[in-house]
Amino acid sequence: MRRPMVVANWKMYTRASDAYVLATTIRNQVAAIDGVEVVICPPSVWLSEVSDIVKKDGKVNVGAQNIFYEEEGPYTGEISPIMIRDIAKYVLVGHSERRFHFGESDIDVNEKVIAALKHGLSPIICVGEKSKSAPIGEAVEQLTEALRHIPKKNYQNCVVAYEPVWAIGGVEAAPVERVVRAIARLREDIGRDSPILYGGSINNKDVGEFAKSPHIDGVLVGSASLRAGVFIEICKIWAEAKTFK
Ligand code: PEP
Q: Is residue 200 lining ligand 1, measured as CB closer than 6 Å?
């Protein structure tokens, strides 16, 4: 089902005490915000603890940043969907940092999407072109590959995150018009029931511009999600814009 969403990707940041404080603050403040689904994707070592913290009032969901596609076996260092399915509702799949640093291919991403869905996790499928001059077709192709062998009826359990690689971790988000064009194109393939998010250097100053577009269902927030105040403001802005439309 399409719905407004704000997703925090903490990447490989936060020590135990940071994760505790951040998750507790977000949980407490999100309690007063309606109309947006908030998801925290902490590092896997904190998944259990963050899940326990946010479970208390049930308004924040938890996502993993990655899974392996096998259920169990001799895969040192990996995490299976079975291990996290009772803790997390979502899992990021195909984030550009995984594709770049860990060599994840479109085939790996597809296997992970299949495994996530099989075990009741909703994959947040990250796609995006590598350079500013690259055509949007690159992201479209990644989505096609990620959805291979997935029956269309299961698309509603997927979330797509359009994250142009050149806009991630920088100081400036991609231009809204370009994002809207890309999302409209991705929508043709994923169908009308799945949320499509934008990710790439979103902060509390520019998020309002994105929230105004009826095409963009939510945002995936990296660096700015590590500052509780900024992240909460993003959630509030998103909820207000979507609720009062
Ligand atoms: C991300 O890692 O998915 C992301 C969007 O990061 P940032 O907001 O820091 O660009």
A: yes
